[in-house]
Design goal:
single chain; 147 residues; mainly alpha; 0% strand; globular
């Protein structure tokens, strides 16, 4: 059945603001467990409705940004902060390109909200990358299509 009108399947929900804040800002084992749990839940839902190609461009850009962060950095360089913020309109474009897919919208909302919590904090940036990697890993684990 087409995902247009009449489809009663529940929409995919982004990670809640409270959970995302805990994941992104707390440096604890509990926050890591929450990251894994929420990535598992979201990845599972995304696997039913998204192909890898629908998120490949976003992940590729995150990987490219990650290459600009040195191991010794105490704060994120301004160019990295800028590229992270500019990722938000690129993700919005992807949502529009794929017909406002609710699963892609949930992923983009989660990632955008996470970006808002990074600021210039290197640890939070790495947590963001870990979260995205975990979501993709679970997407694949639950049978997310590769094309």
């Amino acid at each position: 059945m087409n995902r247009q009108q009449g489809d009663q399947s529940p929409s995919v929900q982004p990670i809640s603001a409270d959970d995302l804040k805990k994941i992104m800002t707390e440096d604890s084992a509990e926050a890591v467990r929450l990251l894994i749990q929420k990535a598992d839940e979201l990845g599972k839902e995304l696997s039913k409705k998204l192909t890898t190609s629908q998120i490949r461009n976003i992940f590729g850009e995150v990987r490219s940004i990650e290459q600009e962060v040195g191991l010794e950095e105490k704060t994120l360089p301004l160019n990295v902060q800028r590229r992270l913020l500019m990722l938000k309109p690129k993700m919005a474009y992807q949502v529009g390109r794929f017909g406002n897919n609710d699963a892609l919208s949930a992923l983009v909302k989660t990632l955008s909200d996470a970006i808002n919590l990074i600021g210039n904090d290197v640890r939070r940036f790495h947590t963001f990358v870990d979260l995205f990697e975990a979501i993709l890993a679970y997407h694949r684990r639950y049978g997310g299509k590769t094309s």
